[in-house]
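As promised in the previous annual report, we have extended the structural survey to additional targets. Below is the entry for Glycogen synthase.
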Amino acid sequence: MRILSVASEVFPLIKTGGLADVAGALPGALAGLGGDVTTMLPGYPVVLAALARSNARVERLPLAPVLGAEASILAVELAGLKLFVLDIPELYDRLGGPYSDAGGHDFPDNWRRFAALSKAGARVAQGAVAGYRPDILHAHDWQAALAPVYLAASNRPRPRTVLTIHNLAFQGNYPSHVFPELDLPAATWSIAGVEYYGNVGFLKGGLHACDVVTTVSPTYAEEIVTEGGGMGLDGLLRGRGSRLVGIVNGIDTDVWNPEADPAIAAGYSAADLKPRSHNKRALEGEFGLRREDGPIFAVVSRLTWQKGLDLVAGICSEIVARGIRLVVVGSGEAMIEGAFQAAHSKHPDRVGVRIGYDEPLSHRVQAGADAILIPSRFEPCGLTQLYGLRYGCIPVVAKVGGLADTVVDANYAAVGAAAATGVIFSPPDEASLLGAVDRTLGLYEDAGVWRKMQAAAMKSDVSWEKSARIYAGLYRDLMKE
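The corresponding structure token record, generated without further manual editing, is:
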């Protein structure tokens, strides 16, 4: 099977969140199942710099102008990935991140930048690159969601299309005046096309046009067809019926491997957890925490309302009063960042804060902390809890989306059967979170129970193996159609 994956970010080249991890890991998992994946992504400066530093052979392929901008494709194999890098300097050669400038403000022409990615993906899917024509086009999130729209609007033969929702909160909605610039037939300005309450809806259009919609956990698939969880698209998603499938994410277990992780102080395994204490001591030193025997709880996340991190900030004093130390790594809403920085100022040797994201540091936190707090108000899948499971850093999670699908709560029966892998609480509010913290602390204080939980967590299958088989079966079924 030849699959063209179209994504706005791909680990290890460019990453702002879990989308990049999925786009980077799924191709390798599919390779052993007959899936030959080539990933198309924009040629951001950081991506082009990675190509320049590598010794890989880069082939520049011509491409007709895309939405009026000169374009070409750089074909390369890098970091274990087959890549089509869309090189449009006018759209992608700029300072900042993939979506915003150095000041954190969204680029005003993001509609054009990602319509161009979708348009180029559709062209390649229909043979714009000599000798290449995929069986499946797999688009990820709103940034690539117009690719199925462009294909459906064409009279030429096209591959089957899959669109994955990684987070329904981000839909790519823009004013109607951009529609004439999208190079789409007038007929697509309709309720069955990209028109969405008088605006252009990138994700909405893709959800109509694609052959199958997937999202990143079974529970999230159930949540988004409800009025409360559908964010205005629940009716459309209900209408897709069996063509909406929830497939839980996995992680790259080679990159996230506590036995051989170069970023951590000491390797360890479920069979031998003793070396893990060296990572805890190292984490204390890195964050300037008081060295003692009590637990360290951690946060590694975007610091946003969606992630429920205002709840953690709100109970910092109560957490510290229980003898728990807290480390926080992430960035996001200024008010939440400020609340954690204030907690650090008040408790400098008990609360450590690092504003920003650092990939190796996130590994060290998972390897050294005892528990990781994930009180999300909604969570399509979540990868942080999977990293926690892999590293024996017990997840304390809200009962939503993929968090509920991937963590086994430490209830009486699960603890007795040595099957518990974390603590689940509901609803996501301060009182419930504090109750979960207390329950986790009680489990930690029983060393035998805690070690069994860590071992069970580390033995959880968080790989892509099962989910990749589901994706491969989905692709094959579509090809039969």
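The longest strand covers residues 69-78. The chain is about 40% helix and 20% strand. These points will be discussed at the next consortium meeting with the crystallography subgroup.
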